[in-house]
Design brief:
Rossmann fold; single chain; 15 strands; five-stranded parallel sheet; alpha/beta; 407 residues; seven-stranded mixed sheet
C-alpha cells in the first residue's frame, strides 16, 4: 500500500536531519522500505529538551578522560573500541558529535561511521578521536577537544550547537562545522562550514538549468521554511547566472487551489518548472506542468510509492554523487556501508567528506581545495564555506540515475 500523505511529509522532515532548514521539523520513523530508524528531530531544529549524558564542563584531565571514555575511537568501523592516541598524543583531528543526545544520536552515528571509515581507509585512525556530547554540552566537548591538542575539530552537527559555538567568547581551534548559521550570521574567525544544505543544491540547480537552456521559470512552492530557503537561494543564483523572469506560484492541495494552479501554469510563459516541494505535493504539482521540463528540490529523493514514482518520471534534481554515481572512480577507495536508508546514506557520505576536508586542514587552511567528494565536488568558497557541487539526477522508470545517463 502507498504511504499516507502525512507520513510522507514526516519522512521529509527526517531528511532535514542532514539538510540546513529554518525552523523545527519533527519526524517519525522512516517508511517500512528503510532498514533503520533515524533521528526524531533534525539537527537544525530547535533543541527539544534537557541535556542527556553530558560531557563534563571542565576541560583538563577529568574532562578529557570522561570525554574519551564516552566515545573512544575504534581502530576501524565495526570493531571493538580502543584508545588510539592515549592522552591525546598524536591527535590531529577530533570529531565532536551529539552521540548522547537522543534526538540526534542516529544522525550523529551515521556521520561518525562515515568519518571513521574514511580515516580507516587512509590509515589515519590513530590520529583521530571522537568526543560524544549530550544536549547543551557542545562547549564542554570543544574544551575537551582543545585540551587534546587537536589541530582540527570537526563539528558541531546541530545548528543550535553551532549558534552556541558562534556566541562563545572562548578561543576556538580550527573548526569544520557540519551545519551552517542563518543567512547573514557571522561565524567565528576559525570556523569553516561543510553542510548538506538545500541552499547549496539550489544554487547548483540554478546553474544547471541555465546551462540546459532554460530562460524563464515557474517556481512552485509553499510556506514551509525549507521551501522558502530553497526558493530564495535558487532565485539569487538564477539571476546571477543571467536567468530570466521567475514566476512564483504557491502550491495548495485543496481542490479549488489546484484548479487555480492549473490555470496559472497553462497561461505561464515559463519554459521550465521548479518544484520547491517534496513527496506527494511534488508529484501532484508535477502533473500540472507536463508540457515543460520539471526540476525539484533534492528532498524529493526519498522512498516513494509506485504511483508517486510514476508521477515523478522525468523530474530532475541535484543530489550526492554517493547516491547518484556510486561507481565513480573518485569514490572507489571509500568504504561503502549499505544502510537501506537514503537519509542515513547522506549523513554517512557527509562523514566521509568531513574527514577528507579536515585532513586537508591539518596544517592550516589550504590556499586551494579541490576534492571529488562523496557529497559533491568540494571547493573553498566565500564566507569560509566548503561549497558542494552535486550531481544532476533524474527519476527514470522508478529509479534515480544520472541525468546524462543513456536511456
Amino acid at each position: 500500500m502507498g504511504l499516507s500523505h502525512a507520513l510522507r511529509r514526516r519522512a521529509a522532515a527526517i531528511a532535514a536531519a542532514l539538510l540546513v532548514l529554518a525552523g523545527p521539523f519533527c519526524a517519525a520513523q522512516v517508511p517500512a522500505t528503510s532498514a533503520a530508524p533515524v533521528p526524531a528531530v533534525a539537527p537544525d531544529a530547535e533543541r527539544p529538551g534537557p541535556a542527556a549524558a553530558p560531557v563534563p564542563s571542565a576541560p583538563g584531565t577529568a574532562g578529557a578522560t570522561a570525554a574519551k571514555d564516552a566515545a573512544p575511537v575504534p581502530s576501524a568501523p565495526g570493531t571493538a573500541a580502543k584508545d588510539a592516541a592515549p592522552d591525546g598524543a598524536g591527535v590531529d583531528i577530533v570529531l565532536v558529535l551529539p552521540l548522547a543526545a537522543p534526538d540526534y544520536a542516529r544522525a550523529a552515528e551515521a556521520v561518525r561511521d562515515g568519518f571513521l571509515a574514511a580515516a580507516g581507509a587512509a590509515k589515519a585512525t590513530d590520529h583521530c578521536r571522537v568526543i560524544g556530547h549530550g544536549d547543551g554540552d557542545v562547549l564542554a566537548a570543544f574544551a575537551a577537544a582543545k585540551s587534546l591538542g587537536a589541530r582540527v575539530v570537526v563539528g558541531p552537527l546541530v545548528r543550535d550547537d553551532l549558534r552556541t559555538l558562534a556566541a562563545t567568547a572562548e578561543s576556538l581551534p580550527l573548526t569544520l562545522a557540519l551545519n551552517q548559521l542563518d543567512d547573514g550570521a557571522a561565524l567565528p574567525p576559525q570556523v569553516y562550514t561543510l553542510a548538506l544544505s538545500v541552499e547549496s543544491d539550489a544554487r547548483t540547480l540554478a546553474r544547471r538549468m541555465r546551462d540546459g537552456g532554460a530562460s524563464t521559470i515557474a517556481l512552485i512552492g509553499n510556506a514551509s521554511p525549507i521551501s522558502r530557503r530553497f526558493a530564495s537561494a535558487f532565485s539569487a543564483e538564477w539571476l546571477l547566472a543571467g536567468g530570466g523572469p521567475i514566476e512564483t506560484v504557491t502550491f495548495d492541495a485543496r481542490p479549488d487551489a489546484l484548479t487555480e494552479l492549473r490555470r496559472k501554469l497553462a497561461k505561464s510563459p515559463a519554459d521550465a518548472a521548479l518544484l520547491a516541494l517534496d513527496g506527494q505535493d511534488a508529484a501532484t504539482a508535477r502533473n500540472f506542468a507536463l508540457r515543460i521540463p520539471v526540476y525539484a528540490i533534492s528532498l524529493i529523493n526519498q522512498p516513494h510509492a509506485p504511483s508517486v514514482l510514476n508521477d515523478l518520471e522525468g523530474v530532475r534534481f541535484v543530489d550526492l554523487p554517493w547516491l547518484v554515481t556510486p561507481g565513480e572512480s573518485a569514490l572507489a577507495g571509500l568504504p561503502r556501508k549499505e544502510t537501506g536508508n537514503v537519509l542515513l546514506d547522506r549523513l554517512y557520505a557527509l562523514g566521509l567528506d568531513a574527514f577528507a576536508v579536515a585532513r586537508a586542514f591539518r596544517d592550516g587552511v589550504p590556499e586551494r581545495l579541490e576534492i571529488a567528494g562523496a557529497t559533491g565536488q568540494l571547493t573553498l568558497a566565500e564566507g569560509r564555506q566548503v561549497a558542494r557541487d552535486g550531481v544532476l539526477a533524474v527519476f527514470r522508470h522508478g529509479q534515480v540515475v544520472p541525468a546524462d545517463a543513456p536511456r
